[in-house]
C-alpha cells in the first residue's frame, strides 16, 4: 500500500480507497491529514484492510476500504446504485427484480501485491478467475477515484443447470 508523489504533485493512491486513521483512539475513523484526527495513530491516505468476510478463494489479498462505500442492487448485484430508485425499472434497471433495494458495502481493494485468483474446474459449480491490468483513463478525476492505473481481478462462481438438452 505504498504510494509516491510523482514530481511533487499530490500523492497517487494505490487503490480507490479514501483516507482513514490507523491505530490509536480513532482507528478506522475518517481523516484528511491533520494529526489531531488520529490521536495515537496516523492518517493513511488510501486505507485498505483485509476483508475477512471474503470467500476463502480470494484470501489473503482481498481487502475492503475502511471509509469508501459502493452501492449495488440487492438482487441484481452487478448493477451499481446511489439509491433504491436506481434498482427499479423506472430508475433504468430493466433486469432488476421487484422490491430490490440499494445496499452499501465497503469498496473492494487489494491489500498487497502478488494478487492471486484461482478458478475451480467443476461440472456443476465451476469458478472462473482472472487478474489483469487496468490502464489510466484520460480523466484525472476518474483515475483518482478508481485508483487507476492499477490491478483488476475477477472471481466468478457459476452454477450449471442441466435442462436435458
Question: Could you please describe the fold and organization of this structure?
Answer:
With 165 residues, the chain is mainly β. Helix content is 4%, strand content 28%. It has one helix and seven strands, in the order ββββββαβ. It has one helix at 140-146, and strands at 20-22, 42-44, 48-50, 62-73, 102-110, 127-134, 150-157. It has a three-stranded antiparallel sheet with strand order 3-4-5, with no helix packed on it. The protein is globular. Mean pLDDT is 81; it is low at 1-5.
Oligomer: single chain
* Strand arrangement across the biggest beta sheet: 3-4-5
Strand percentage: 25-35%
- Number of helical segments? 1
Output the helix-strand order.
EEEEEEHE
Largest sheet: 3 strands, antiparallel
Low-confidence stretches: 1-5
Beta-strand segment tally? 7
N→C terminal distance? 50 Å
The structural class is: mainly beta
Roughly what is the average pLDDT, rounded to an integer? 81
- General form: globular
Rounded radius of gyration (Å) = 19 Å
What percent of the residues sit in helical stretches (DSSP H or I)? under 10%
Detail the topology: elements first, then pairings:
Blueprint: E1 20-22, E2 42-44, E3 48-50, E4 62-73, E5 102-110, E6 127-134, H1 140-146, E7 150-157
Outline:
The chain has one helix and seven strands, in the order ββββββαβ. It has one helix at residues 140-146; strands spanning 20-22, 42-44, 48-50, 62-73, 102-110, 127-134, 150-157. The strands form three sheets. Strands 3-4-5 form a three-stranded antiparallel β-sheet, with no helix packed on it.
